[in-house]
């Protein structure tokens, strides 16, 4: 009995120790974000940045955010980013679901070789692909449009890999039973497997959203028109033009730029946690 209590006590102490460590690291990670929001609410930061840094401004003011909301250029950049991001997410997630299902449940020649090719794309960073992609879209006269930002999301090695791993965990008996009832592959996918893929879909949506919304280098290369600037490009140009003179406005802009990602994650966090939990469950 004493041994059992001793073991339970050790487990409680170990759990408490882990919680403290995670709490400390969590606070360290969130501190820059809190400081960014704090400076955004500090009107005096437009004259000089507060030093030493303060997590709570001395005289909070919504002046900077009022200026940001009145800025037509930022609203235009938001609309541009929304168009690009929503299109990229829809195309990328839809294509990856179909490809992941095919690699997991499909039976065709060369499946393993094709999947290895898909995985190899994960080893190639964006920088070596910039020139080939630029020449490709230039040859079809699509530069300075949103198409070069949307079409590359059609093939995402990471999302396809995640989908395949998720569908591998679902039993093949579902597909076999559906085929016995006379259903085709598309019917089996849309009516049987897709309704079960909610957690992985939520995970892919937020990943694809972050990748597209935060993308900076590729839009910088293919977009020359200021009317087509996305939020990262507008934020970078604003910071470059003003430097640290308007620190409060810059931080308010930065806060607004990450706000959609935070909101999306808060809505989808339940499904993302389910996806992580299900990743350890293997279907029979």
Automatic annotation (TrEMBL):
GO terms for biological process, alphabetical: transmembrane transport
Keyword Phosphoprotein included in the entry's annotation: no
Domain of life: Bacteria
Tagged with keyword Coiled coil: no
Residue span, ABC transmembrane type-1 domain: 78-268
Coiled-coil stretches noted in the UniProt entry, renumbered to this chain: none
UniProt cross-references to SUPFAM superfamilies, sorted A to Z: MetI-like
Topology with respect to the bilayer: Multi-pass membrane protein
InterPro entries in alphabetical order: MetI-like (IPR000515), MetI-like_sf (IPR035906)
One Pfam family of this chain: BPD_transp_1
Key words of the record: Cell membrane, Membrane, Transmembrane, Transmembrane helix, Transport
Regions that span the bilayer: 20-41, 78-101, 113-134, 146-167, 188-213, 246-268
PANTHER family linked: ABC TRANSPORTER PERMEASE PROTEIN MG189-RELATED (PTHR43744:SF12), ABC TRANSPORTER PERMEASE PROTEIN MG189-RELATED-RELATED (PTHR43744)
Family of the protein in this entry: Belongs to the binding-protein-dependent transport system permease family.
Name this polypeptide is given: Sugar ABC transporter permease
Provenance organism: Fictibacillus enclensis
